[in-house]
Amino acid sequence: MNLNEALKRLDAALTALEAAAARRAEADRRTIDIETELSLMQDDRARLAVDLDGAMARLARLQAAASEVEERVERAIGVVTAVLAADERGEA
């Protein structure tokens, strides 16, 4: 093998090494991008869990208030019904 052939082989090997290094750098960049994306998604999940807990607490309070209102309305209906019945009987 002569010097020109050896230089061509060395040049080809260097080109292959540069390409491999570029691929590795790109893979590392993608890994960092994926890790960043995962971190953002975990932050979003935590925020959404807090929001959901708050919404569930508000729902429980609203359901309790609705039950109380329902009971009051039923009592009011009972009172109005009793007053109307008494009026019909001439007891008012």
UniProtKB/TrEMBL annotation:
- Keywords annotated in UniProt: Coiled coil
Q: Name one Pfam family in it.
A: DUF4164
Kindly give the InterPro entries that the UniProt entry links to this protein: DUF4164
Point out the coiled-coil segments of this chain.
Answer: 3-79
This protein is called what? DUF4164 family protein
